[in-house]
Sequence to fold (650 residues):
Amino acid sequence: MAEQTTPDKKPAPKKKPADDGRIPPPPSSHYERPGMMDQVRDSQIWRSIFRHGYPNTVRNRSLAVLSNIFLHLHPINVRSSGLRLSFTWCMGGLTFFLFLIETITGVLLMFYYRPTAEYAYQDIIALAEHVPMGIMRELHRWGAHAMVITVWLHMFRVFMTGSYKPPREFNWNVGVILLVLTLLLSFTGYLLPWDQLAIWAITVGSNMARATPLLGYEGPLASLMAVGDVGLVHSGDDARFALLGGRFVGEATLLRFYVLHCIFIPLAAAILMAVHFWRIRKDGGISGPL
Amino acid sequence: MTETLYGFFNALSEPKMFFALFTIIVFVMIWKREIVCTNKFGIAMFIVSSVFFVWALGHPGFYKNVSKADNVPIVFMLFLVGYFTWLSFRRAVINDRRMERGELPEEAVENPKKVLTWPDLVYSEFICSVLFMAVMMIWALALDAPLEEPANPGKTPNPSKAPWYFLGLQEMLVYYDPWLAGVVLPGMIIVGLMAIPYVDTNPKGNGYYTFNERPFAITTFLFGFIVLWVSMIILMTFLRGPNQAFFGPFEEWNLHKVEPTVNIQFSQIFWESWLGMKRPEFWLTREMPGILLCLGYVFVLPFLLGQTLFRKMLGQMGMPRYLTMISMFLIMLALPIKMILRWAFNLQFIVNIQELFLNV
Ligand code: HEM
Fold:
């Protein structure tokens, strides 16, 4: 990985940089004969995309990370202790990878799925019956379960290495919100197949909202929320009603959960992940002993 | 012979025993970590648990339970949590030994070497993704996603369970009312997690595995994560059937099993058993002892502990941090305390104000 230097040879006379202000094309002089790949790399198209030479020097390898919007969420160099698989268990990375799988398979599923009480179940059946070799639903469902597991294990690892300690306190908090969002993503998605498993799991899960203190109609002290004799909190306007869009899990809930599941929560999670990764970099990369 | 073993494991899985067993396992693991972290022990545990698992699959009820499509990931999770706990202890013990000898932790030795993200990190990320994608493909091909009958609001299945990752909370419903188990305590878990970096003022153990440098933090976290979260999920998923009754792993689910419940309120114990008089009519007087007990737990106990058991910690952290830490700590312990009270005295509520839906 050491920089390629040729101490005994005189440096070649500098070429005048191209006038358009771009980084000059990679020096291909050290090749015997420019091969096809070299010609491709010298082409204007290639150079318009990758603004650095072949990543075999420290400078170009750094540029490979810096000049790519996705890669630049990484730091330029990392501690070798943090690279060890037995240090991070790759759990954060796998969580993110699962998020990508979920996004792609989820978009494909959306082509076939209509979030109405009339069609939802039919569409899931159709998916299983009419799409040959279809494993998108399987990938999506198992990916969701796996993501919950990897996010827990990731948190476990971060705790065991004490990586939440300064200066990473804030990133731990971003993580906690991501954990909640991951669970909510799974929870809202659980309803969409619109089968018995789905509506009853969501019913049981959301029944608790009835008991929210002050805001749920069976919650403690809710009876105090009254103006004179008129109670303000009842089954038609309490916390559970707001969550479900109705007194029970019905069509309004399906639409609500669908929108949350496909748009709002993934968007929020994606933005927070960007913050999370960026903060890892700003906080000095993967933690290591000082 | 098999029957006796089935009976033995059924008895071991009974909620009381189950909870006690997991607690003991976590504490013994911490205490005997020098032995636990060896390769031999790890491999032996893996073989023992796998053999047990394969043997148990011979029982139709057990097989049905663990092979339910949505339950398969939980079985994976159990093995993964076991493995990673072992791994982190292994690395912690190795580092602790090194530091006892006055050496730096392993991570610190590797630390000065920095490598470039491209190619070292990017390539290993790429390889991990490819391998993991293969695992996901095999899983997706081997196991169909479940689909039951169409939704029918008129037909409640028995048992009805929340999605599996919330089953720890559903298990809490056995001991606490929904407003606590479903709203306040989950909220507190989130707040408590967020508070961790601000209350843990111990500067050591930042960025490497260690146990000896932060025994209290790790013990508390492991107790919360393994005993109160993972084990409760296992209990609710695999060991509770119709009517939320307990069923051993080798017991067929039977719709008619209803657990006899004797519910005793703290006010009964206080007024009738201890004072030997009738309970007062007015709810505030009736529940006053319970209310005082709860207020004492939340507002007085922290200060008592600060003067005694946690004196040193209070000195190190300062009052605001200490109070945040101790409230979270006590709220976490409220679950096992209530469980034990339930099992020992059939105690249902400490404060029981039906008039306001306020039960603790
Ligand atoms: C959707 C969820 C999440 C994603 C995609 C994610 C992703 C990542 C990735 C890729 C890393 C790099 C190191 C590694 O792989 O371990 C990381 C580090 C980190 N994560 Fe997360 N994470 C998530 C959730 C969480 C949660 C739930 C927490 C804690 C409660 C957390 C706290 C942290 C912290 C503190 C670091 C820095 C660790 C260090 O420097 O050693 N993250 N995360």
Observations:
- The two ends of chain B are 45 Å apart (CA to CA).
- The longest strand of chain B covers residues 114-116.
